[in-house]
């Protein structure tokens, strides 16, 4: 059947053009991600780069399987032996790079220190290669080096193969004027005036332009507010309640104004409280919040010397609106939730700085590092209800948040703003 065929099958033709377009687009994305500054846009480009790479791998395996049961059409009559040999070498080379590039990229992702999940096009989970993520540091680094060297070599090989392939197409179509181009463009005639040839050139230019013009939609810098019926973001830990006289009348048992209390009062945080943070990445503001945190509050403006607050934060609950970015934040280079799942802020000293304004002086324990931290906040008490909000800034580098290349503050600023807003009820 192959001897009588004058062109590739329709399935082979469709796969050929799809893979060709994906490879060109992938090259442009790689250039942009490598040359551009690290930041949210480059991060998003690399996630798309991974998705397209896996897509090329799957399409190439399908193309190879189809090729094994549907051989290529014969070479043109009279084609020199050296050209036939060169053509076979180039075609084999393309299969090597179409399968090898995604595989080496897959190795890089699977052995990366920053354990990012792969979500194809932001939606379909794709696993790491088996065994590689669980390797010890030494062998894991070796595999990463193998993947990086292999990927770089295959990228350079891709440039060479593309030049040879496009040059051969031009030679056959314009100089030799044989029927080779119609193998992948049914009905094409030899010569430079063939419209299918110019259509292919226009498609090539369009893919290149798309690669440079494409801008990923910015991932939300923070998740949308939780709906009213959603579970509370805060899981309060009850503090000891103030002592009351069980024999008192209902009127006497009614809670007096806080200003009249000489002892600290226990408060329970209500639904809808938020604990968030803002970081700067290549000049762009990245906002997030912690979905799970607890608060033990024993406080009275009239007993600041005996007031105390303890806040525990589940670091794995960080959410910035981008699942892959969140996974990076909880990895060992940043929050390292595997070894340090919780951050704790404890304050036992309070200062009044103005009407309804205070400062909590305490200690933050983050990634196993304890540092002093002052938290200015405003407070308004109306009967049994208190509303409070505050903002402070901490230096992530002093807590080791950002290891290796991320320890530098060139891309991600050292200063991280932390804020909270809550409503609490007196117990």
Automatic annotation (TrEMBL):
Gene3D superfamilies associated with the record: Lipid/polyisoprenoid-binding, YceI-like (2.40.128.110)
Keywords tagged on the record: Cell membrane, Electron transport, Heme, Iron, Membrane, Metal-binding, Transmembrane, Transmembrane helix, Transport
Secretion signal, residue range per the UniProt entry: none
GO BP of this protein: respiratory electron transport chain
A GO cellular-component term linked to this record: plasma membrane
TM regions (residue ranges): 12-31, 89-109
GO molecular function (one): electron transfer activity
Superkingdom assignment: Bacteria
Membrane topology category: Multi-pass membrane protein
Location relative to the cell: Cell membrane
Domain Lipid/polyisoprenoid-binding YceI-like: 266-425
InterPro entries recorded: Cyt_b561_bac/Ni-Hgenase, Cytochrome_b561_oxidase, Di-haem_cyt_TM, Lipid/polyisoprenoid-bd_YceI, TTHA0802/YceI-like_sf
Repeat keyword on record: no
Cofactor(s) needed for function: heme b
Family classification: Belongs to the cytochrome b561 family.
Protein name: Lipid/polyisoprenoid-binding YceI-like domain-containing protein
Species the sequence originates in: Caulobacter vibrioides (strain ATCC 19089 / CIP 103742 / CB 15) (Caulobacter crescentus)
Lineage: Bacteria, Pseudomonadati, Pseudomonadota, Alphaproteobacteria, Caulobacterales
